Amino acid sequence: MKKVWKGLLAATLMAGMLAGCSGGSEEASGDKKGTVKIGGIFDLTGGTGDVGTPYAEGEKAFFESIAGEEINGNKLELIGDDYAYKIPEAQKLYQKLKSKDKVAAILGWGTGDTEALRQQVAADKLPFISASYSENLKNIDESPYNFLAAASYSDQARSVLKWIKDNHTGGTPTVALIYNDTAFGKSPIEDAKNFAKENGIEIVDEQIVDLKTLDATSQLLNMEKKNPDYAIINQTWGATATILKDAKKLGLDTQFIGLNWAAGEGLLPIAGDAAEGFIGVVTHAFPYEDLPGMEKVKKFVESKGEKLEDKNQKFIQGWVSAKIMVEGLKLAEDPTTGEGIRAGLEKISNLDLGGLAAPVTFTPDNHAGTNQIRLAEVKDGKFEVFTDYIGY
């Protein structure tokens, strides 16, 4: 398995003289503290690596930006690896992070692996902030150590459907659903269908398109028979680009709207002018937005000799997830244990992220941080946000 550090976090390894290891913290005698280790489960080379790579880079960048700082007297270290979007590899990596690396919490990735791990996560009492926004993870009885740092896929779909309902003219709006046959792809589908039925919106078609597909013509031809006004896409950039390009070739006039992993700058170079008019769910800010929270990101990126404009929204998304985890550590009375970090995360109330994302709140009874999204449309090759934060 490929290691992903490249020396990124060497500055945090300040505990060489410390002895012992317990609950994710290396402790020494007297009043000295140690290093709290946070695990990372990344997709860099698998089916969602197109968005997973910049997301992981954002997480690692945030930890590097606070290297040398102490959180409740402890240094922090992020330890992660690529699992290539394979659930068995995620399980192996999880066991390594827990047993060998002694992490105190984990920043995860995919829906399938996050859901597969949640019973172990609960038993091991390891707080887990995933890049999956599966509705299932909101069940605090089954997932007491999982936290959602953005609106769930189901909440995103509900908000999109409400926006359609509020803005459609000319009778009952008709909608198709396009998704991949993974836990991630299917996550919001039943909830979307139920919400549509309750709100006078007709779901007229569903099409399954593989994450790695290079041709969606047959699925789009089938969808065309139902002539939907809108099609909601739950994919990452690659499949979304294929869908948009093939739709343009076929001359479809359906309005395509993508949930959060379908949206972002990485879509634009591969979709080309076929992306014009595409609407995307925006859970996190674009680097080119003038927002208070972007100043720290810009300062850090420039300190590395890089440019903020070379980063993308998924980088910001990873940065924010890491920031939320660290905020929980700051609020924890004991940031060296999973129980302590969970209690710290549950103290987060209306966390102001400087516009990088919607404010987040966790409580002992609710680990869904927000249900708010924005919408952006591609105009002249650039995503332009056209709503404030909205819900349903």
Automatic annotation (TrEMBL):
Gene3D superfamilies: 3.40.50.2300. Keywords: Signal. Residues 1-19 form the signal peptide. It comes from the Bacteria. InterPro entries: Leu-bd, Peripla_BP_I. CDD domains: PBP1_ABC_ligand_binding-like. PROSITE patterns: PROKAR_LIPOPROTEIN. Residues 35-382 form the Leucine-binding protein domain. PANTHER family: BLR6548 PROTEIN (PTHR47235). Belongs to the leucine-binding protein family. This is ABC transporter substrate-binding protein. It comes from Sporosarcina globispora (Bacillus globisporus).
